[in-house]
Amino acid sequence: MKKDKITVADIAKKAGVSPATVSRVLRHRELVKSETIQQVENAMSALGCLLEKGTIAAATEQPLIILNVPELDNVFYLKVIDGALVSAKAHGYRLLINDSPLDRSSIYSFINLLKQVHAAGVILLNHVSKEQLDMIHSVVPLVQCSEYNEHADYPYVSIDDYSAATSAAEYIVSCNCNKIAMINGPMSFKYAVKRQEGFLDTLRKKDISVRPDWIVSLPEVNYQMAYSAVCRLLNNEIRPNAFFVISDVFAAAVIRAAKRFDLRIPEDIIVVGFDNLDISIMTCPTITTVNQPSFQLGYSACELLLDSINHPDMFPKSLILDTELIIRESSAKI
Amino acid sequence: MKKDKITVADIAKKAGVSPATVSRVLRHRELVKSETIQQVENAMSALGCLLEKGTIAAATEQPLIILNVPELDNVFYLKVIDGALVSAKAHGYRLLINDSPLDRSSIYSFINLLKQVHAAGVILLNHVSKEQLDMIHSVVPLVQCSEYNEHADYPYVSIDDYSAATSAAEYIVSCNCNKIAMINGPMSFKYAVKRQEGFLDTLRKKDISVRPDWIVSLPEVNYQMAYSAVCRLLNNEIRPNAFFVISDVFAAAVIRAAKRFDLRIPEDIIVVGFDNLDISIMTCPTITTVNQPSFQLGYSACELLLDSINHPDMFPKSLILDTELIIRESSAKI
């Protein structure tokens, strides 16, 4: 092996410490215990990597974290990524963003990527099957963020989608609405399944019947698609008087569609969104929405991943963060 | 050198072909001329890389492109990234997104990253100094996208910010407005400098004076910051009757601030934004804006980069894409 091919990951493995520790020894040795410095230096000389100027430069590669998103187009992910970036930087890691469905046809190439860049860990924002999680975990530590697989035993940071949807549905019913439609995302996501369950269970408990054609699942979080779907529902004699939608982008589409049909919000139709995106205060009326702690989701996921990287023997504890309903003009005259 | 450390980049260099060609030989040899296959296979055996099953798997790493953004928070970048992703995927490359200012303190770590992951090329959405462009170009081919450095001789895909701002300013004047404010981004970006020049030159030609305190440069594209800045301008006896702003996010902030001061849009104040983001049709009124071909900017930048990678001897031609003014409710009763 040539000297200039030795990476921080190689040294870390040899020394039995984390890549971040190797980085600290190389750049901020004042922060590291003397035994650890000795351990790392021993590993470096065992690998034929001397502490000469050029060699250190070659070795001070930042350890990499890959964050994978299913689709970058959904602005909800931006704040999550922001949180993960802040945590990664604070710990001397670099975070790179990859966009892949992580399905059967793309998983092998993703695994190759992790090996190719010697990734130290992975944050997954997709819903990933157990089989594919096992494959990824055989290469690097992983943390699921926002989406997670209930049938696999890997750590995650997420919200309680069922209870968040229950609160939203109960609130809608309390506004005296009984003709309630739901615009959902793709049912391949945990959030879509759980929010729909919470929504339907609540209406069932309140003896409110739901028309099956008023439960719409769209293939992506897309404004134009949602606008078409809502127009189709409003273009009937019997139309909903409330919408529960799983993104504020969809709620903005409901607002525009209502205007097209000369329906007033909140007088004729109320709408409750999800995520508390910036656009929820840009529309007119502003959007009542379920706030997700997006930044914190990403930040905590990265912190959990760093725990996994630095303490491979400890199983990090998953985390469920709180949501809250924010009442704005789209559901109440305030 | 151990067999399992040989990358596509190594083989490509040895064979004198592009990494994409090596990928095609390994995975879709039916698409490749027989001489080229021979060339690649010779290179592989010269590197001690035999065509056994495990070896091929190790070698079929996708060549990587790094796309660097100055701040992911600006949704304008999402469509640009989307375009670059589509082009990269179509050519068998993988695109990873990195978030770095690429300033003096971060450039060395960026250069290390490029070496560490054996990047095949780089797309830069930042404004980068000539010195730092030279450093990056000494490692990999690069293309500048949206932002570019006029004093450096590297290829770019962008728009004509001066002329786009000129058209917007001429339109505002044609709406009989003479008290015009501008909310700009950070002057470290080429777009901010050029748009301000176009704006000021137009008003000068029309003999319209501009109050210096009505030209505001904000440190980032942020809704809350813009809202505060606009409220400050509207909270005076003499207030603007038009706003030219360099992002639809800022235009949305003008709309909300106007409401707070009981000012009607477009009757009392008109506003012209930039980018034609999705939010420009979500607000009420909808936003008159300068459309940027965002997807095409990213797509063309990646195509240009692939030209540079595949034909290192040819200097790729830079490209200026068209913008257009889209008139909506925020400037005219339509």
TrEMBL record, chains A, B:
Keyword Transcription regulation belongs to the record: yes
Annotated InterPro entries: HTH_LacI (IPR000843), LacI/GalR-like_sensor (IPR046335), Lambda_DNA-bd_dom_sf (IPR010982), Peripla_BP_I (IPR028082)
SMART domains: HTH_LACI
Pfam families: LacI, Peripla_BP_3
Superkingdom assignment: Bacteria
An example Gene Ontology molecular-function term: transcription cis-regulatory region binding
Keywords, ordered alphabetically: DNA-binding, Transcription, Transcription regulation
Sequence ranges assigned to domain HTH lacI-type in this UniProt record: 6-48
Keyword Glycosyltransferase among UniProt keywords: no
PANTHER family, per the entry: HTH-TYPE TRANSCRIPTIONAL REGULATOR GALS, LACI-RELATED TRANSCRIPTIONAL REPRESSOR
Protein name: LacI family transcriptional regulator
Organism: Roseburia hominis (strain DSM 16839 / JCM 17582 / NCIMB 14029 / A2-183)
